[in-house]
Design brief:
mainly beta, 11 strands, 5-stranded antiparallel β-sheet, about 50% strand, about 160 residues, Immunoglobulin-like
């Protein structure tokens, strides 16, 4: 029986990852929480194994995280899930505006992706509009801008 082995941990390997936001969440103050989704793919065909690194998400203006998040591996070509969904609770700070968690975003090759979802809500008193001042940092990789839209009272 063959045993699958991971490539050795390489500090800074996260710089070989392409990290992106998927869609723009919309929510109204007092509404049901929505999901801020982001994905990670490899920019090279070889394994990427940065080891456990810190993910830091800063919510766009008008939003706060609940702390709940989930992730799963997906096939890059079909976006079909290759693993069961994992759920976790991240650490909240700054009134829920910052969510942090630690994980190894290991990718065996550039044919798989990691899809993440963090629960987010528009805060009471948030002004309607599109906000682009959120940020996602994964270890030492380049930060990614996070966007979200606060809905007005007549939108759903």
């Amino acid at each position: 029986m063959a045993t699958e082995t991971k490539a050795p941990v390489k500090q800074g390997d996260e710089k070989k990852l392409y990290i992106f936001q998927q869609g723009i969440p919309e929510d109204a103050p007092g509404g049901v929480p929505t999901q801020l989704a982001f994905g990670i793919v490899s920019t090279i065909p070889d394994p990427v194994n940065p080891g456990d690194i810190t993910f830091t998400l800063k919510a766009p203006t008008g939003f706060a995280f609940t702390g709940w998040l989930s992730w799963a591996y997906h096939d890059v070509n079909t976006m079909q899930a290759k693993s069961n969904m994992n759920t976790s609770q991240g650490s909240l700070s700054n009134g829920g505006r910052t969510l942090t968690f630690t994980q190894n975003p290991y990718l065996a090759d550039n044919k798989e992706a990691l899809g993440y979802s963090a629960q987010i809500s528009a805060v009471d008193g948030a002004m309607p509009g599109r906000y682009t001042d959120g940020q996602l940092t994964v270890g030492t990789a380049s930060p990614v801008k996070l966007k979200a839209r606060v809905l007005g009272p007549d939108e759903d």
